Amino acid sequence: MKRTGRYAVLIAGGGVAALETMVALRSLAEDRVDIELLSPDRDFFYAPLSVYEPFAGGPPARFDLGELTAGIGARHRVGSLRAVAPEKRTVTTGHGEELLYDALVLAVGARRRVALPGALTFRGHEDAPAITRLVEDLEAGSVTTAAFVVPSGVTWPLPAYELALQTATRLGSGRGRLTLVTTEEQPLGLFGREASEAVGRLLAERDIELRASAHPERYADGLVHMIPGPPVPAERAVALPALGGIRVAGIPGDASGFVHTDAFGQVVGVEDVYAAGDGTTFPIKQGGLAAQQADAVASAIAAKAGAPVEPEPFDPVLRGLVVTGAGPIFLRAELGAGHMYASRSDEAALWWPPAKIAARYLGPYLAERAATAFAPFALRG
Questions:
Q1: What is the rounded CA–CA span in Å between residue 108 and residue 314?
Q2: Geometric angle at alpha carbon 164, from 161 and 167, rounded to 5°
Q3: What is the pLDDT of residue 340?
Q4: Burial of 352 per CB tally in 10 Å (0-12, 13-18, 19+)
Q5: Residue 229: which residues within 8 A CB-CB, separation 6 or more?
Q6: Can you spell out the DSSP letters for 242-259?
Q7: What is the C-alpha to C-alpha distance for residues 201 and 218, in angstroms, rounded to an integer?
Q8: pTM of the entire structure?
Q9: Which residues pair with 317 in a beta bridge?
Q10: Which among 4, 113, 220, 285 is least buried, having the fewest CB atoms inside 10 angstroms?
């Protein structure tokens, strides 16, 4: 990034947190900032809809990052972040380039790893064909039992519920035995009591057995083995991945590689370096929360760049759209100081636009380009 006289903001990443920061920053700071997005990817995939793909939903929407950045007067540089030198306000890319910044935003996401050895790990679009085959085998009767597993460790549990619910809806009653295995005490308990009870009713209505407070160890010989407790019989098992931080040289992280930030997203102990999204130590890894972290970062940077805005701290509100195969369910929980104190569930939209990723700036920006990809009717079975 070359000096232009404007406040130079370099955003490392190409996911929700990165793009929300970019769009929010342009809206808040207008032409006071020069924005460059550094990402190894050329496209942004609307990953949360990958749970819909195995059920004839089609691949998730894809957006060209060059077009998205150009649309708000920013630039996209293809490359990865290798190291940061905060004292010089420079970064080194994977290609050996040295880039200058006034503010750096780390939105590099998290690393996914196998959490349940022996099971199919559902990471998203790339694993949709395997889920399609599982559903076909269940329909044909060649497979009669299957388990969908939320593993121990850091993960986002919602996709396991969506895969189980859509599979059950597709099969109908009396065909196949499905089990939802989770480390949570209550189904999607992080959304609070009302939402959790609504999800529990959905599981019961579709005859999906719930094994809560379970800690899966491995999948072998047709059994999901637990610590402690009896194993769950399943001819096939689908598990979500566990997440770990992506370490960047020059940036301190915890033992798992996640980055500590303050309420405005600034990396603790590192001036003018911010972080948002799955790579931070905030325990819930979800796109809507990543967008809210990005909003806090954008407001802080915009103020530093001279924009007449008051920085707004990260005040998390958890929103989840559950794809069930028979119409979506909207869940909402307000989180105060890390503690849930309000919970709602409804078949009607609880936010607008009614997207899988509830993002104040990015949601409308993407909806203008692919509105039907996010409308609730597009999510019905």
A1: 19
A2: 145
A3: 52
A4: exposed
A5: 214
A6: EEEE---BTS---TTSPB
A7: 28
A8: 0.94
A9: 334
A10: 4
Question: Cα–Cα distance between 206 and 287 in angstroms, integer?
Answer: 27
Question: Is the distance from CB of 156 to CB of 318 less than 8 angstroms?
Answer: no
Half-sphere exposure at residue 316, Cβ-oriented, CA atoms within 13 angstroms: 27
Q: 121, 127 in Cβ contact below 8 A?
A: yes
229 — pLDDT class (breaks 50, 70, 90): confident
Which helix (H) or strand (E) segment holds residue 15: the answer is: none
| Digit-coded pLDDT (tens) for 270-293 | 999 999 999 999 999 999 999 999
What is the distance between the alpha carbons of residues 343 and 191, in angstroms, rounded to a whole number? 6
Task: Give the three-state DSSP class for 308.
Answer: coil
Q: What gap in Å lies between CA 143 and CA 139, rounded to an integer?
A: 8
Q: Does residue 374 have a pLDDT over 60?
A: no
pLDDT tens, position by position, 110-137 = 999 999 999 999 999 999 999 999 999 9
Q: How far is residue 102's CA from residue 121's CA, in Å, rounded to a whole number?
A: 40
What dihedral do alpha carbons 232, 114, 162, 47 form, nearest 10°? -170
Q: Where on the phi/psi map is residue 327: left (φ > 0), alpha (ψ -120 to 50), or beta?
A: left
Q: How many CA atoms lie within 13 A of 122 on its CB side?
A: 34
Amino acid at 12: A
